[in-house]
Amino acid sequence: MDESDEQSSVFGQLLLSHRRAAGLSQSALARRSGVSIRALRDLERGRAQAAQQRSAEVLADALDLAGAQRELFLRAAKEGRRRVPKVSGAAALCVLPPRVPSLVGREGDLDRLRAEAAAGGVVAIVGHPGVGKTALAIAAAHELSAQFPDGCFAIDLRGMDDQPLAARSALGRLLRALGVAPTEIPMPESEQASLLRMLLHNRRVLLVLDNASDEAHVRPLLSAGPGCLTLVTCRRALAGLEHARWLWLDLLTPEHAVELLSVTIGADRVEAERAAAAELVELCGYLPLAVRIAGNRLANRPHWSLAYLVDELRDARTRLNSLSAGDLQLRSAFGMSYRRLSAAARQLFRRLAAVPGPDFGLELAEVVTGTSEPEVRLQLEELAEANLVQATQRTGRFQFHDLIRIFAAERMEAEEEPPERERLINAVLDHLLGTAISAGLMFFPDAQPGERFATQDDAAEWLDLEAGNWLAAQHVATRLGRDRDVLELARAMHWYSDSRWLHGPWDRIFALGVAAARALGNRQELAMMLNFLGWAQHMCLGDNETGLVTHQEALAVATEAGDRQEQAWAHAYLGSVLMRLGRLDEAREHAQQSCLLAGEFGFWTMQISVRNRLGRVLRAMGRYEEAIAVHRQLVEDAERHQDEAPQGTRLWMTGVVVEEIGHALKGMKEWRQAAETFRDVRWVYVKGDLPSLAADAALYEGAAWREAGEYARARECLQLALDALTDSMVWTRRDEVLAELRRLPPADGGAEAGRKGP
């Protein structure tokens, strides 16, 4: 843009700046002011020099301009009509745009910028596209303007445009705004930058460099003056910017997002549909731009209910289409960042949409690209730098914002051919399902080291890390009709689920296995899956009645199919469920029947588990000595079969049996023997690296020591349990520990000791 063009479009530039700051589309401003959309478009694009006086006044009213901003706006219109502007184009474009009327949810960020004002220097405000970086920077500049008496200036560097504003052009504008005559501005960019630094050295100036493309774009504009503060907004992290401080702008909280919606459409409408408002902002991903767009659509359609727009946004395939209002389009905001990526990073970005879970690391990025780790690492860093993916709290893991994930899926749909999309999806599923199956099989009692995993610890680490992805992969495989893969995954999780029964949606995992077995028409596999599902229902969900029905069906199917192994398991599970329901005689009959059938099968794969259940039923019936005899015989048999299972399996399963002996001794009120038994099993669990089981044993040991009158030992064990139970899923267990601690007499004899948990 040459000098004459720049001056002739001063009014259009001011109009565009004020409209965007007000969060208005062209159509919304047209309705407010009565000026046609076409006239507004011509003014903003410079096709018309300026508005007539009456039009300029109604536009100023519609934009809520007042004071100096209104005066500059009207004067620019007047001078534009004369075609000999007296207002310097550069000076006008360096004026701070109007602040957003209601900056919701950013008070903490404003506090941070208030604190930064005294220190001066450079603060880079970074974050996702549409998160409100510009709004925050301009609001802070207005609030801090009194601290910078030598001027507050703002320049839109247009970093996401195909042709960003060159640093040399921005320097020229700033120098003229600072009073340098055009004829005195040196030609070389380096000399312009030096002149700017010299002018700012002893001044207090605040400068907003909005929408920078990268570090090189802003370096010439940065001043080292101690009294100056420069706020840089950028979608990239600007990690290479020397001597800068960074402010990462997070998404809005759900409460603040609803408040922003209220500002746009009115509190009455939000209050009338609170649930719909909460879902609406959630579907907007708590992204300020998305919430503003949704709010503008509702504001311009007062007859719409919030529930109507929510229903429209629920469909992820059309959500980005729905999040547009006039020239405010969320897809365009994402698209600008996408276009500036390298070709390799663009490919990775869109192909990561094939990952079914919530996050991903290098492993899955390599799967979707087929390139080497060093190349993928660079591409992920580029995506993170552009804030198109975000690093998670776990090192090396990344995630999409929900709306950016939808945009990535759109790009994959548009830019990858159908056969390639199908290949990508299946490659990801093959990797996730195959690896999860290999990892799950490592927990079987007779497992041996495999090519992928050498130990159970390795397998558990992968399963825990990629849980969100292999769980999602099973659902995708179900939709695609890959029933054999779905069934194999559920089967592989049998023993792993025993060690993680508090974690994971096992009922859903095994329910998918049941559906897959039915689809395949295999009765033996159906019986197995029904037993797994019934276990999840009564053990993980505490739904004994539903579990009973499921295991009864499993027994019927297994009997029909002649599968004695699944009959044995069904009897064993029925014994456990009936015991929980208090139907003890029936429970004993099923438990005994399961033991008779189990003799045909392996010790570690079946016998130890079903015989241990018989002992539990006997204990529930008050037949403690019989129960102890069953468990002690199991311990002896475990010694004889110790070479048939890995050490980890032996320690875990034997520990469970010995723990049952401790519970039976508790029933006999043999408190000291019970405590010593729990102490022994606690060390077994520690040796086997089973911390949650060790914490349970410490709880049982502490309770037994308390009953035995050994209060110091009890307190020590209970404290060990409390320290170990940190997972949010074991809060109930923590409550049990705290209750036991309160039962102890005061440690020092005082009235308050023992009443409060740590």
From TrEMBL:
A Pfam family: TPR_12
Listed SUPFAM superfamilies: lambda repressor-like DNA-binding domains (SSF47413), P-loop containing nucleoside triphosphate hydrolases (SSF52540), TPR-like (SSF48452)
Source superkingdom: Bacteria
InterPro entries the record matches: AAA+_ATPase, Cro/C1-type_HTH, Lambda_DNA-bd_dom_sf, NB-ARC, P-loop_NTPase, TPR-like_helical_dom_sf, TPR_rpt
Transmembrane segments: none
Start and end residues of each HTH cro/C1-type domain: 15-70
Gene3D superfamilies to which the protein is assigned, alphabetical: lambda repressor-like DNA-binding domains, P-loop containing nucleotide triphosphate hydrolases, Tetratricopeptide repeat domain
Signal peptide: none
PANTHER family noted in UniProt: HTH-TYPE TRANSCRIPTIONAL REGULATOR RV0890C-RELATED, REGULATOR-RELATED
Annotated protein name in UniProt: Tetratricopeptide repeat protein
